[in-house]
Amino acid sequence: MPDTILVVVEQREGKLNRVSWETITAGQAIAAATGWTLEAAVVGGPASLAAEVSAKHVAKVYAIDSPKLTPYTPDAFAAGLKQFLTAKQPKLVLMPHTYQVRDFVPKLATALGRTVISDCIGFKHEGGKLTFTRQMFQGKLSADVSFTGDAPWFATFQNGAFRGDKAEDGAAAAPVETVSVEIADGVVRNKPQEVFKEAKQAVDLTQAEIIVSVGRGIREQKNIEMVKQLADALGGELAASRPICDSGWLPMDRQVGSSGQTVAPKLYLALGISGAIQHIVGMKGSKAIIAVNKDSEAPIFEIADVAVVGNLFDIVPPLIEEVKKAKAGG
Fold first, then answer.
1. What is the predicted pLDDT for the residue at 330?
2. By Cβ atoms counted within 10 A, which residue in 32, 140, 256, 308 is the most buried?
């Protein structure tokens, strides 16, 4: 029998995280390259989530169930998955590189005596050897890393490394098996509180489909209102490069980059952003990138799908009007 790849998808409050679909895309690509069987698992949450995943091109979906899995705790997830993985023995376990996964996967891997290759941006399968690509030194270098120990192997993929909308549907729904795990009393040592947010206005940019991001080319804080008007007109979220947030012109939850959020929207509009590597790392997975900068040599243009050389103050106001006209006419 071929080896098995298991994708552990993430759900929050009964909904699948968008990056989970990206991880399924990664799993499908690895399965195609290796010939291994692809399966998926949903930990906790309603039964409907497993059915949702079963529509994708996977061989089987497991709904891992226990009353102690809801609400989420790292102790319960690590204990439940350890029990399941010990019985199932997949070759490779893939997960999205989210805050939740980062919380429990070190404990899970350690409990099984295994290691994790985290925050991967790709993979290679050459000469029968599987390696994972991860960035180092804030994206300045990339390293290909392989496992040397026994399976199961654990790897997490960075948000935007693969496209969730490229996850292939199956010819028919995959079978769903409910697996009950026994988590003993006393295993869960903490009591979950509400999910932490830095501020009331905190935003999860990873879920935004349109992002309008601003950099130092905006010159003054008062000019950000113009960019906000464009974001509102497009129905998108306002974001920024690090210097804008460091200056206090926008809250830190709006920062995109290696020290901010990693995003992969359908459209990323970069206004007055030069394109330092720390910012590029956080948004290069965007499906379409439009950059506006008066410097024709700006690094952002190297990854932009559309490069507009010009002053954003000449371009943004008429663009706002055109977007409004298009919406009014549509």
1. 60
2. 256
